[in-house]
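Example 3.2
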Amino acid sequence: MFRTRRLRKTENIRRLVRENKLSVDDFVYPLFIEEGTGIETEIPSMPGINRYSLDTISKELDEVVALKIPAVLLFGIPSKKDDEGTETWNDNGIMQEAIRFIKKNYPSLYVITDVCFCEYTSHGHCGVIHDNDVDNDATLVNLAKQTVSHAKAGADMVAPSGMMDGAIVMMREALDNTGFANLPIMGYSVKYASGFYGPFREAVDSAPSFGDRRTYQMDPSNRDEGLREATFDDEEGADILMVKPALSYLDIIRDLKNNFDRPIACYNVSGEYSMIKAAAEKGWIDGEKVMMESLLSMKRAGADIIITYFAKEAARVLNK
């Protein structure tokens, strides 16, 4: 009789037959950078995650580099907002200054930038508002300006998170036409209108002042639509396809892995992070074990890249 337990008997045999393995090389660490000075403020709903100004962020970046995390994803928090989010293409804005600071002082770090408007608009939506909804094509014009500004500042990759139709091709053309043909784009290809984003909106002050984002982010009920969305990004020239959130959408990660010959990323979002942190604080779960198991589930589902607030903690575990 064949006994499957024979290959589970010791740790060494389990290591030999292990199908998926996490690595620090899988991780991208999100960073929240706020305009101003002397800022190092913990986000209440995300224990261990802070907002930093550029004069206080070096300790955090030193740790990221020491842990050999290869990349960071930057989110800027400006001191002023307006209806269109014009600070996003200000060449001296907080995001642009952050890019230059990191590339100068931490040249080994790969810098990915969030290309969106919700943190920069007075209404908290991801673009230009007409008739109480985001105007897709007007937003694309501004998206191109923001993309080129990030590229000029020295970004290594840009990642549009707003789910505007045609964003990838607009950005690709803008980059190609301004001398940045080699700059890659990571598409937020399948991004759901999820309840798991709550803590992030506190982190960057981006909660919509009216309505919600269901007219441009995907319905959580839909699976086939995710393949259509990813197909558009693939055809428009995205270099990496992303699924967001991760844990409730592992089936979508696998769908993309099975259907596209591009690297697949997933975003282990704020609500997923905070739930594990809260349950661990209560003593209801082993926080470290559940953290590693949840990250492994994303890897097993097919993610080549995992954007996660757990990156530092998980790196410490893997580096032991």
